[in-house]
Design brief:
heterodimer, A: 367 residues, alpha/beta, eight-stranded parallel β-sheet, two-stranded antiparallel sheet, 13 helices, B: 129 residues, six-stranded antiparallel β-sheet, three-stranded antiparallel β-sheet
């Protein structure tokens, strides 16, 4: 199956060429703070040595002549936006670990600088570019202030949670002010993996992650935990307008997890009396999930068989490339592995509705 | 009719040059004193393996504490999902029975590197998608 219609790419990682690009957007106090005596900047991202891989984490053709992958708009346009007929790309940093720095005051200053930089340097360049608003989660009050500060910008289409600020999954009541504010403004919340597993001492439910192979394979784990937490803490009863996108953990786990939650709710509802409906009903109504990295079985038909055991899943899935990361999915790869009659919803309509995007611009009017 | 890929001197070690052979993009690379040619299309997921792939010796692990290189076996690493293929045979390094990278015969005549037009060995067509 081929798909030639419009695309919303729900997971695109933009970046700055060097950390110095962020400096003008930081208050002087923090500019001075992260500048070492010899003039060099303290790196704003965690060292890659914690989960190294010999060939890096980017598609090798995405390195611009100068700077980092994802830092060149022109390359993104030529490699992603134009060839894939992308109607909208949701920008989400690479991947926003600054939001989880132990110093919450620096983290707040940095995410504000990053958001200002994104609006200033990216959103005006191309009508197809929209962005998620990064917030830190150690201090939800600061996150609320950031959402109120920039959440109504026309280029901001969601709030981005990456880092796990308080070592509690995202349904914990401490995070609820973030959801309350997002729902009031009408912004959905994106939850992107890596927040629980990017830093030294990263944990899975089984303990410390020993290498990138373990970490990459188990990316699904924190996503499952966040989703379970959101539902068991009654977040969607409390904020009926809230919508959440789960990003970059594949999709074949969906039937299993929702089967389990639906099975457990009757017997365990005593400690979650605010859960009024089947978890799968909250899921269908409030949750969307990006397809990348698309799960692959020995035969192409295996994945479809698994997905069809969860009726309505074609209204949940949203296409993503994860550009410029190495474990990218292409349009052709996904189109060949999902039913043809799902294509318009998965590649475009589900995400367009979720992010409340304007209808596609006809080709004859596009510039 | 073989396709001309350039003079021997034009090839830097491990840096592929792309040449079109019967309408197909083929990467030609020098490794040591040998030349190899393979299709610019990864059989895993159609990544541009010739244009952007990385050439290196195969990594081997003789035991738990040693990671070494097998200098006799050059491989190309796909720029997307990091699948590795042996340049000589097109076989995948991890699963030799898996889909192979199409390879081509190379000959050097009068200082010119030429690629024969038909894929050989690997030669397995790329699956769609």
């Amino acid at each position: 199956m081929t798909y030639t219609g419009p695309i919303v790419d729900t997971d695109v990682h933009h970046d700055w060429p060097t950390d110095a690009a962020i400096l003008p957007y930081l208050p002087k106090k923090w500019r001075d703070f992260i500048t070492l005596p010899e003039g060099r900047l303290i790196p704003l991202k965690p060292a890659a040595i914690y989960y190294p891989t010999p060939d890096g984490v980017y598609r090798m053709e995405t390195y611009p002549p100068e700077g980092k992958p994802g830092s060149s708009y022109e390359l993104m346009r030529d490699q992603l936006l134009d060839p894939l007929n992308v109607e909208c790309a949701i920008l989400g940093y690479d991947v926003g670990q600054a939001a989880g720095l132990p110093n919450i005051y620096l983290a707040s200053a940095l995410v504000s600088a990053m958001n200002d930089w994104t609006i200033d340097q990216w959103l005006g360049r191309d009508r197809r570019l929209k962005a998620s608003l990064l917030v830190q989660t150690q201090s939800p009050d600061d996150a609320v202030r950031e959402i109120e500060r920039l959440g109504r910008h026309p280029g901001i289409v969601s709030v981005l949670l990456v880092m796990l600020g308080m070592s509690r999954p995202f349904g914990h009541p401490a995070y609820h002010p973030i959801y309350e504010t997002a729902a009031e403004i009408g912004l959905p919340v994106n939850i992107h993996i890596a927040g629980t597993t990017a830093l030294p001492g990263a944990q899975s439910v089984g303990g410390h992650l020993g290498n990138r192979f373990e970490r990459h394979t188990l990316h699904t784990q924190p996503t499952e935990h966040h989703l379970t937490s959101l539902i068991t803490h009654g977040v969607f009863e409390k904020y009926p307008a809230l919508r959440v996108m789960l990003i970059e953990t594949g999709i074949s786990w969906i039937p299993w997890l929702l089967y389990e939650m639906d099975r457990n709710v009757a017997g365990l509802r005593a400690e979650s009396p605010w859960v009024k409906r089947l978890p799968s009903e909250y899921f269908r109504e409030h949750i969307r999930v990006t397809t990348q990295p698309l799960d692959v079985g020995p035969r192409k038909s295996d994945l479809i068989k698994v997905l069809e055991t969860f009726p309505g899943i074609e209204d949940v899935l949203c296409f993503a490339t994860d550009y410029p990361h190495w474990d990218t999915d292409t349009k052709e790869f996904v189109a060949a592995r999902l039913p043809e009659h799902w294509a318009n919803r998965v590649f475009y309509q589900n995400a367009a509705s979720f992010y409340q995007l304007a209808p596609p611009v006809p080709a004859s009017l596009a510039t | 009719m073989s396709a001309d890929a350039g003079s021997v001197e034009e090839f830097a070690a491990g840096v592929p040059r792309i040449v079109e052979v019967d309408g197909v993009e083929v990467a030609v690379v020098r490794w040591g004193d040998r030349f190899y040619a393979f299709r610019n299309l990864c059989p895993h997921n159609r990544g541009p393996i010739g244009r952007w792939g990385k050439i290196r010796s195969r990594l081997i692990s003789p035991d738990r504490l040693r990671l070494d290189v097998d200098a006799e076996t050059p491989v190309v690493i796909c720029p997307w999902h990091r699948w590795e293929f042996q340049l000589q045979s097109g076989r995948p390094v991890f699963d030799p029975a898996g889909p192979r990278l199409s390879t081509f015969a190379v000959e050097v005549e009068h200082g010119r590197v030429r690629v024969r037009p038909k894929a050989r060995l690997g030669g397995a067509p790329a699956p769609d998608g």
